[in-house]
Specification:
The chain is mostly beta strands. It is 0% helix and 44% strand. Strands 5, 6, 7, 8 and 9 form a five-stranded antiparallel beta sheet that branches. A hairpin with a 7-residue loop joins β1 and β2.
Length: 182
């Protein structure tokens, strides 16, 4: 299962894939994979653990070497569901996805749950995140410095069948302050 695929706009052979792995088992092909040959081969560049998948990827439109990834520790059983865990997080790469570091300043402590990301082309210094988290930490977050620190803007997360399914964000290409949350 694939959460997202992004292609380097400078070289269409460089591809990053957010792999979710098997839905009903641990292990498998989870994390972020990078290919430099158009997908003929790929290397897992962001593994977290056997129950944590990569669910979202965003390129900085001004500098595609800067990439953001969201991971989600999720384990589904016939008798229960683990939605979130310590593997959930926001990650940043500054070398085109070859190496990653976890972002934390201003984000909720504890288990984050499902996360959606958006970077507005009109202002790539902004990064938006919608985070499932616990009741106190969940909500809509904004970074004004390319993910280095975050501020909670409000406590909204999608309802319906649950935020663990629909944590999707899209940023307007023209208005950096307009973000659509599915």
């Amino acid at each position: 299962h694939i959460g997202r695929i992004v292609v380097d706009p400078r070289d269409s052979k460089v591809i990053l894939v957010a792999a979710e792995g098997p839905l009903w088992a641990s292990g498998g092909e989870r994390g972020v994979y990078r290919s430099a040959d158009g997908g003929a081969t790929g290397t897992r560049v962001l593994p977290v653990d056997d129950d944590t998948r990569a669910t979202d990827l965003e390129l900085d439109p001004a500098n595609p070497d800067v990439v953001y990834a969201a991971t989600y520790q999720r384990r589904r059983h016939a008798w229960g569901f683990l939605a979130g865990g310590p593997g959930s997080g926001i990650w940043k790469s500054v070398d085109g996805g070859k190496s990653w570091r976890r972002l934390a300043t201003g984000l909720p402590s504890g288990d984050l749950g499902k996360i959606g990301l958006a970077v507005p082309p009109a202002n790539p210094a902004l990064v938006y995140a919608t985070i499932e988290a616990d009741e106190q930490g969940r909500g809509f977050y904004r970074s004004t410095n390319r993910g280095e620190s975050w501020e909670k803007r409000n406590g909204f997360i999608p309802g319906g069948t649950g935020p663990h399914y629909y944590q999707e964000l899209e940023a307007s290409p023209h208005d950096p302050d307009r973000v659509y949350q599915m």
